[in-house]
User: Fold these one by one.
Assistant:
Number 1:
Amino acid sequence: MSLAAVPAQAPASSSGDVGAAGALGAAGAVGGVEAAGVAGAAGAPASGEAILRRQRVRESAARTYARSFPIVPVRAHGMTVEGADGRRYLDCLSGAGTLALGHNHPVVLEAIRRTLDSGAPLHLLDLATAEKDDFTSALFESLPADFAAGARIHFCGPAGTDAVEAALKLMQTATGRSGALAFTGAYHGMTAGALALTGNVAVKEPLPSGGEVVRLPYPYGYRCPFGVGGEAGADLAATYVERLLDDPSGGVVPPAAMILEAVQGEGGVVPAPDGWLREMRRITAERGIPLIVDEVQTGVGRTGAMWAVEHSGIVPDAMVLSKAIGGSLPLAVVVYREDYDGWRPGAHTGTFRGNTLAMAAGAATLRYVAAHGLAERAAVVGERMTARLRGLAAELPVIGDVRGRGLMLGVELVDPAAEPDACGARPADPGLARRVREACLARGLIVELGGRHDAVLRLLPPLTITDEQVAAVLDRLADAIAAAAALDSAAAASPVASPAAPAARGAE
């Protein structure tokens, strides 16, 4: 049965391996976190079922998260999401990193209400407003000082992909060049120019060419493109870039820009070594190539620093920002050095650049994260979660790698029976990853997948996650991985092995 066809009251496996209506159990406490009662099939509100049914009929085949999570959220607060059927879930997706403060944080709601009550215009294109001025001040105060000094900001359409387009057009205008340097595993959006920079072939293959992009190796320690891994692999990746750019027969026309992520999110939560980032900055600076850093998902404290570039200390020529900067509402900008500000009026426009509510919510979020040290807490909590997950990897051979930075963590699942490669990495197991995702949902945990083969469990909890919630997330995740792995082992031993699920687990 397809996940899209599973009713809200019974999150089940698309393969029939993991999850069933009875898997959630009765009301109780899990990991010290209050658990809601679970309605049976007869008691589930028909409205939720009807909404899911209409979604399947009316929405496009391109929908994604709705397939992974066949639930109808009706209420949310902090890290907790409640479905129409009364079940509660701990949300480790957080709007793909958008919800730095979780759902409906009081400081965000207050900023929105205050703006609505003030009578401020909600839509003004790119006209000056008090809300825009305040947001710009809050943002510039949060940026690395060396970068913010003399920087300019351009408000884009309300998605990160449009800000990527703007940054690319800006550098093309400034340099008079057209190409770009991007990396394997990169994700920069789904519009034409941003898609050309993206590494995922599956989303690019059906489309015509999106532009001249030179693909460079990203330092992925677990699956090193050079087969060596570790620091040596990162050094080789940097050397390759420098030699290629300097080779008159290398086939690389001088580009308009290089764009990279300090931590690849959709690419599988792959953090770039700080030394490699500093080498990319040196190489681009020495050759007059503008460096764009995509901080759409890594920004606003996510990696344990306010901005991911702060770990390495590099100062880019432009930063692309979205997701959390809008305080849960749509907002995207590109911030860049003023000496690149050479485009003409109207060179990059859009109807929804003046989202007043998002600017108010964003300013409140930026100041709250800074005032309460949430970036620093993300670093501490992330280290604790990573240590627990690596301990789990020692017990469960299906966990091939645990990595990340701050509260941007990834657990790569593999086939433990397969032969490892030269770096010791075994083949990814996307089927197991899907079953673990479904087992997590049955246990009241929302976790999405990513990575080269969709075999990486991605953890993006809000920065406000409590110690109690950390314990609950890790307990549920560990239980889900162990259960799915056990089912796989049983299936391998006996093709007729029946699915199993915990008799009584509550869902937050």
Number 2:
Amino acid sequence: MSSSPLALAGGQIANNNAPTFLTRNSPNDPNTQPHNPHISESMHLKHFISKALATLLLLTASLQADQTRVYFGTNKSAGIYTAQLDTADGTLSPLTLAAAIKAPGFIALHPNQQFLYATIIGFEKPNTSGVAAFRIKDDGTLDLINTLPSGGNGACHVSVDATGQSLVLAHYSSGSAAAFKINSDGSLVATDSLHTHTGSGEHPKRQKAPHPHSAFIHPNNQFVYVPDLGIDKVMIYRLSAEQGIITPAGHADVPGGSQGPRHMKFSADGKQAYILNELSPNVATYTVDFETGQLHYLDTDAVFSDGNTPEMMTCAEIRLHPNGNFIYTSTRDLNQNGLDMLSTFKRSADGSLQLISNTPASVSVPRNFNIDPSGQWLIVGGQKSSTLAIFAVEPESGALTLKQNDIPFDGGAICVEFLK
């Protein structure tokens, strides 16, 4: 029998928590009226329905609170895909097409969570790049706002500043960084802010010319950092967010030779910068000068504890856990011998790193991954396996435990971004 205070008794609904209604059939009541049992039942029934609806609304809100929307950029599918991650149990809803567009490789979200931006190719000619702006609809699908040529070839990364007024972008093939203005309606405006890098590195194949691989904005929103794989430098720009313009402000060397800086992350307070090197799989740590934007090198930590890197193992992505205590990286086995892995580094109070574990990635060529805003789940995409894997994240130790793998995704996920 139900423990609810609502129960059927004598054909009527009884509710111990319901208010008491005056029936006005007492002989002492000067306003005595004949008692109508139907009116009393009706009032009780309305109260019951009201409470039931309130409970249903609370339950719906609770279920929605456990759902976090995630978007996937791709390189060989119909466009941008989306799904819902259930943060209560780590399950992922079926993937659906959010927007049809050609090769939306890297994506970024506007800080107001109403707009999404993506690098695209074939904008005017087959090999030219562009950037697209989308409006996020309530059901998670995307409405195209506008597209613009990006000003170069091989657009590979895009970021939006903290005020939502500027977008910055890196071109791997043509060796340049660009900036755009964002209107209040989310649309993009060209500003002709384009800067081409020069130089080369030591690697005979991968560093013959500049190859900017990403563009990240410092938490103070004053500087943009562009790791350039081809020249072993991080190029630094001053950002004018209101105008959508970047201007050169120096560079930081990545020591060691043939390092290949690819992506980077900042600590939440902006004091440390962590640069992921692709060619010599490691993470280089720097401190940040807030006034000049300059980076000062501290140390390098390898993703392999014994210091020996198997052939054709290259790093791809770096992420900071929401609690700030751990940094995760992905390493790809380009020989496809099953050595793909996720590395976990512990961050100390001074910002230094210590490698604590390497975990099999459970996908082939983990080009990208991300941690959901709650810090409980990590989703990694396998570019070659065309699958996704989900790991549970233990926030105290940083440990990763495989929840599910072999989630089919023919799109070849190369970017994973969560709504917050």
